[in-house]
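Standup, Tuesday
Yesterday: got the pipeline producing structure tokens again.
Today: sanity-check two examples.
Blockers: none.

Example 1:
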Amino acid sequence: MVIPRYVFGWWPAKVLAILNIVNQIGWGIVSAITSGEILYDVADGNMPLAISILVVCIVGLLFGLLGYRALHIFDRYSWIVVAISFIIIAGFGGRHFVNVPMGVGSSERANVFAFATVIIGYEVAWMPVVADYGVYMHSDMSTTATAGYTLLGLLVPQILVELLGAAIGSLTMSSDAEFAAAYDRAGMGGLIGAIFNSYSAHVYGFGKFIEVLVAFSIVAILAVNVYSLGLNVQVISRKMLAVPRFVWTLVGSAALLSCSIAGRNVLAEIMTNFLSICTYWLVPFCNIMMLEHFIWRRDWDYDVTAWENPSQLPYGIAATVAFLVGTVLSLLCMNQVWWVGPIAKAIGPSGSGTDISWILALCACTGIFIPLRMWERKRWGR
């Protein structure tokens, strides 16, 4: 989150860092509770959900404290285990998955737009932290290759995991009441456990092992949340640099753990809805960052000596104005559980709305940022 200073300037970049801290803690809470539900099912309810969440958070914190290289080693190999586990779950669950017909009409179209917006927001949430994990790459590495690997690394798993998630979620509509009861008891973990429970005792025991692997796969996310959180805090103020980064990681982890345990029965759904709204600032932010880079800094024209010198950074007028307009338009076009904006209502079916937030935000940000940034660079030369 230091890089936005080269577009937004010194002070607005601090606000963006705070927003990103909310994102990191929020998604960490959702991940911790989800993972805890799976461990809770593994123990057949004998291990309290609070303890399950505690175990997962501690492991995630340990990897976050071990640092950059440990995170890379873990992520480099853990995805193989997770992919195999997901394939096994899909294989055993195939006979139980329910083919839910796709709806038709304006309401269904509105739901698709709203869901797509959430998915886009979740994907681009990687952009505010991605630079934290590329600092040791060789300087002569192809930028095209880096971008290509990053895109594939985001896109392919996202599609496959969401297809599997939708399939597992369809079990709640199964004619077998056991699946609905399992979901009420232990959420997603209960559904995964019920898949294996429908087979022999040996398969059921093997399913427990798979559930453990899936539960601890969340560590890859939690570790990133708490590792990047420490870096984000230091962007807010120079005074924060006086405190060792691992302290901020510990503080953020404590907040994440406390909220996860305190709200383990209701907070996951609340935070998911809240974070769906929070992601509406990410599309304008990412659009502005990409416009700045590809139009004015294509040859990596960043003065690396200016990152902590406000007098050498842009004032951020163009970026701030474009960001505010884009974000406000996004909120007005929102169609989510907690809020349906007036623009979304106006173009959507009766009783709901059609979410065109990211489309309108992209157009508005581009139309506002480019001419203002041209003026800003001409006026102050930075």
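Example 2:
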Amino acid sequence: MSTLGAVLAAKNLDSPDEVRDFAHGHMDIVQVAGRTVGRMVFEPGWRWSVHMRPTAGTDSCRVLHTGAVLSGRLAVRMDDGTEAVAGPGDVFVIEPGHDGWVLGDEPCVLLDFTGAGGYARH
């Protein structure tokens, strides 16, 4: 009989392993226990369909995002037209096939636990 060992690992996002810059924002990335976690910072005026589409080469974001909003507000429109807004303290799952944009004049800062690995790669 085998026993699985416990894993306890921590890294601080203020000392990221990688920083990915993109128009009107950036993402701080840490690799911890074989997983990728990103802190995304979207500045006011950022919109996926304007600022990320040219890099992604798709009509909408094709990445699954699972995370939490720390500050600011993010609006999302799915390809089927469904819309939602996430704000501070909200936990979200955003399936592939969406556009997103910052609402208001405050940056939107969020943690992404599933979509950071391939996001904003040039």
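Quick observation on example 2: Helices lie at 48-51, 53-56. Strands lie at 18-22, 25-32, 35-42, 65-71, 73-78, 83-86, 91-94, 98-103, 108-112.
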